[in-house]
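User: We ran a pulldown and think these components assemble together. Before we commit to crystallization trials, I'd like a predicted model of the whole complex to look at. Sequences follow.
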Amino acid sequence: MLDYSKVLNPTVVSMPPSGIRKFFDLLDTMDDVIGLTVGQPDFVTPWHIREEAIASLEKGKTYYTSNAGLPLLRQEVCKYLERRFSLTYDPAHETIITVGGSEAIQMGLSAILSPGDEVIIPEPCFVCYEPLTRLCGGVPVPVVTRVEDKFKLRADELRRVITPRTKCLVLPYPNNPTGAIMTREDLEEIAKVLRDTNIVILSDEIYAEMTYNGQHCSVATLPGMRERTILVSGFSKSYAMTGWRLGYLCAPEPICRMVLKLHQYAIMCASTTSQYAGVEACRSGDEDIENMVGEYDRRRHYIYEGLRRIGIDVFEPEGAFYIFPDIRRYGMSSDEFCNRLLREKKCAIVPGSAFGQCGEGFARISYAYSVKHITQALERIDDFVHHL
Amino acid sequence: MDKILKALEDDATLTPEQLGMMFSKETGDIKKLIETYEKEGIIVGYKTLIDWDKTDREYVTAMIEVKTTPQRDGGFDKIAEKIYQYPEVQSLYLMSGGFDLCVLIEGRTMKEVAFFVAQKLATIENVTSTATHFVLRKYKDKGLVYGYAEPDERGNCN
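Assistant: Here's a predicted model for the assembly, 546 residues in total across the polymer chains.
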């Protein structure tokens, strides 16, 4: 009989399942739950994008593309980045089409990390950076962000955790789960800390289109930052294309060459059908983005005001489609709060502790839902906190 | 303010309080604004879209192309005014192209609609001809797809 404890990778074995997964597993066992948990748009991919994917299949475009992705898509991605965010990348040597932003994150980290390298990760944040860093032999170094700073990364906090082993800073803004953003001024302070170092930035800009008080600023547009930035993004959030698994990574050529090796051996190429859909999204999807972001913005105001009226402390998020209320006044852990809300009122929100220790005392609420649905959830939350 | 109108056009059930929360305005201000829109006829009314095919109600809808001789002193408006007085007429549009007026009417049976066209519509002065097309199935109306509501199948992934 095979001894699995001897064959499995100890790094993976010791990797705890994400706290968010545990909560979702519990959620799956219950009926009639009003949930605000989903981290993906409630829109369907716009028809003109789906239509291009169908057309590509009708034309028999069912082969692998080049490893880096369709040249046409890489060109369109670069045009899009320049048009929307003033980012300039070479489609031939600095752009790789990936299987979602998630692959781009893993490949980016794998391309730069050696065992013992430290990766600074601002928390609360999306759940993947820490385990993927460990998988590469790296050492995750969490850096706390706070509600009083609107969950922005502060330069002094960053400076405090930098050591000679620091290889990378993850910059996950606009942020899941807090809805925080970093403005050009905020990033300038970070850039000052990094400018004369060898630290690489992994800038996860998957929510770049979802900012509500002005256009997103990419750190790569700041002087001296492009050369050290691995930009990861994708189509999932901007065009409601989560199921297509289509993303991209842009970085200077020396980094991209390494990423391409990994991508080539592990993935070959992203789905060809999805890539043709991506071409159409980049070319003609700007209006779809405006419409969807307009709708998210209405819901953002609505849920912020709704939580405030209930009497819950909450900071007004400026990006992504999450709001991160402060539940410390109710005297229980975020896990307990969310579990009780789920069991007693059948309303699901995600414990903030799932996104890092400093998420304790908060909860993530997604507003990628209809106003009617959000209203029902707010009623249940109101009922819950007023009977505590 | 167009944003508020657009939100109401998409969902007439939104209350002034909800709209105020969405657009960072006082509930009272939204109420006043809506009253103004109503007085000015910008907001014409509120209805509910119902898929009657899912009920036992017997009904039939028809689109009628109407050709007319426009009147010297009222153009098409005078004829239109006569036509839209009938409660059976649900919608009425002045058209470009091969006919002048497009009339959408609803009745209980095809016979009832046919009777209305023959006895009422076709006999109106200056109506020169009609062509009736019965609706067999409604797939989409006012931007909403008719059929069964798709369940939310989004996975809890991250």
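Chain B touches chain A at residues 3, 7, 11, 13-14, 18, 20-24, 152, 154-158 (CB under 8 Å). That may be worth checking against your pulldown data before setting up trials.

User: Thanks, that helps.
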